[in-house]
Amino acid sequence: MQSLIRGITALGIILGLGSSALAQEKTDISITRQPGILYLASHVMETQQLIEKRAAEGGVKGVKVAWRTFSGGGAQTDALLSGNVDIVNTGTGNLLLLWDRTRGSVKGICTNSAQPVILVSRDPRIKSLQDIGPNDKIAVPTVGVSTQAILLQMAAAKMYGDKDIHHFDANTVQLGHPDAMAALANSQHEVKSHFSAPPYQYLELKMPGVHEVTSSRDIIGGDLSQGTFFTTTEFAKANPTIVKAIRQATADAIAYIKKDPKGALEDYKTISGDKTGIDDLMAILKEPHMMDYRMDPQGTMKFAKHLYEVGTLKTMPTAWTDYYLPEAADLNGN
C-alpha cells in the first residue's frame, strides 16, 4: 500500500512538473512578416487563429499572437536580435546571416513558401542584367542582405566572376514592395526596376512597358524558399509547444491554401487591406510555381555556399539541418 502511495505521489509530482513547464511557456507571441502573398500562409494562420488552436491542443492555453508587418527582412532580424519580436518570417538569406552571426543561436522552424521572385523594369533599354548601367536603380527590400540583393550578387558572380560579386550593389536602393511598385508607376521616378515579389511583380507586369528581366529561378536554377519562420534557440528551448504549434499551424494553413485558394486570398485581403480584386489574385496563383507553398527548405544550401564563398558567412554549414531546429530534421530540405 505504501509503495502504491509513493507511486501515486511520484506520478503527481511528474504531472505537476509537466504542467508547470507548460505554464512557463510564453503566451503573448509576436511574429513578423513582409507584405505580399509570399506570406499567404501567415494570413490564414492569423485569420483562423491556427497557432492559438494548436498551442491549446498541446496544453498551452490562452496564447495570443501579434502579427507585425515590416517592409524588409533587415528590420525584422534587428527586431529579433533586440528581443522586440519572438519569431520572424522572412527570407533564407536573413536566416543564414543570423545563424552565422549568432554562432548557431538563431535557427529555422520551417518554411512556408517557395514562389519565384521576378526582376521587372519599365526601362525599354534593360532587357537583361547585362543592360544594367551604373546609373540604373533597382529597388530591393533590404540592400545587401535581402533575398533579392543576394540573388543579384549570385548573378554577378556568374556574369563577372567572384571578384566582381558586388557589381550590382551600387545599383540597389531600399524600398518596400508597395513603395517600389508606386515608383514603377511614376514615370518621373528614378527607380525604373524592381526585384519584386508576388503579387506585386504580376501587378507591375500589367503596367505599360513593364517587362521581366530575370527571376530567382533563372539565377538559382530551381526553387528557392522565401517565407521562413525562424527564432532564437533560447526561445525554442523555452517554448517547445509554441514552436511545434507554429509548424503544425503552417501545415494546416498550406493545406487550406491548396484546398480553398480563394478562401485563403480572402483571408489575405482581410488582414492586409490589399485592394487587388480577388479574381486578379486568383489569376496570379495560376502563374507558374505560384502554388509552391511548402514547409521544406528549398535551395538554401546553394545560398549558403555562395555566401560562404564570398566571405559573407564565416562558417559553411555541412547541411541545411545545421541552421534549422532539430524538430525540422524530418523535412525534405536542401
Question: Could you explain the architecture of this structure?
Answer:
The protein is of the alpha/beta class and 334 residues long. It has helices spanning 2-24, 40-47, 50-57, 73-81, 92-101, 147-160, 177-185, 200-204, 216-220, 233-238, 240-259, 261-272, 278-285, 300-309; strands at 28-33, 64-69, 87-90, 106-111, 118-121, 137-140, 172-174, 191-195, 211-215, 228-232. The protein is globular and about 60 Å long.
Chain-averaged pLDDT: 92
User: What is the helical fraction, as a range of percent?
Assistant: 40-55%
Work out the strand percent: 5-15%
Main sheet characteristics: 5 strands, mixed
What's the tally of helices? 14
Q: Over the alpha carbons, how many angstroms does the gyration radius reach? A: 22 Å
Determine the N-to-C terminus distance: 57 Å
What spatial form do the alpha-carbon principal axes imply?
A: globular
| Helix and strand sequence | HEHHEHEHEEEHEHEHEHEHHHHH
Topology, number of strands: 10
pLDDT under 50 segments (min length 5)?
1-22
Classification by helices and strands: alpha/beta
Q: Give the spatial strand order of the biggest sheet.
A: 7-6-8-5-9
